[in-house]
Amino acid sequence: MNNLINKDNKEIKTRISAVIITFNEEKNIRRCLESIQDIVDEVIVVDSFSTDRTQEICEEFNVKFVQYKWQGYSKTKNYANELVSNEFILSIDADEALSEELQKSILRLKVGEELSRNIVYSLNRLTNYCGKWIYHCGWYPDKKIRIFNKSNASWKGELHEELVFVDENTKIQHLEGNLLHFSYNSISQHILQVDKFTEIGAKEAYNKGKRTSILGIILRPIWKFLRDYIIKLGFLDGYYGFVICAISAFATFVKYIKLRQYYK
């Protein structure tokens, strides 16, 4: 790939592979690929047999496109990580893109000292909801570890998957700039996702032996709304701040009634 770094005639000391998993992401994938094409040295797209134009769009870019049956978020991402040819990985979702400042941070990273195996890099994720950037509601800065050595990290968890590290002395360094997350185009899309994500979350909680009472079902959503809207200043995001906090509280309610249903 052509790297912007070469314009300054600086030597690239660390090469980074980008990993993306996709399924019917024709609305997002072009923006994602455009934001990384001059930043990383390799792009691996693992697609779960999309039926839209995702593959067609990916083929316009210099990417390795692999189709793989969906195995859940963590297993699919771990499979994708095995396909890279570089030691360091940038994990990015199809509905995300690098801000200009974050692009520059990653480029500086590549020409600095060679990256250490036990150092990972976190990013601030800024979410766009129905066309508005959300800076509160517990949604920002939403730090995510997204750059890491493939031999030191793997994904774990079914819904909110997290990285686990082989090296117990792994250290986190933070990069400047935002990872731009284009989440929901409409309120209806958000509500539809609630059913999907609460089902995964309830099942995961059940498998861990978690339980809830009727009182918990009542109080958890109330606390969720008050925390996000008042304590985490969701009201500063205006109308959509209220919508987000209300739907998040509703999602909490749905998750725990589904959890209780598992035990019945």
* Secondary structure: helix percent: 25-40%
Radius of gyration: 20 Å
Shape: globular
Distance between the termini: 55 Å
* CATH-derived topology of the largest domain: Spore Coat Polysaccharide Biosynthesis Protein SpsA, Chain A
Work out the helix count.
Answer: 7
Task: Profile the largest sheet.
Answer: 9 strands, mixed
Proportion in β-strands: 25-35%
Helix-strand sequence: EHEHEHEEHEEEEEEHHH
Mean pLDDT: 94
The CATH architecture name of the largest domain reads: Alpha-Beta Complex
Low-pLDDT sequence parts: 1-7
Structural class from helices and strands? Answer: alpha/beta
The count of strands amounts to 11
> In the CATH hierarchy, what is the class of the largest domain?
Alpha Beta
CATH superfamily annotation of the largest domain: Spore Coat Polysaccharide Biosynthesis Protein SpsA, Chain A
Query: Into how many domains do the coordinates divide?
Result: 2
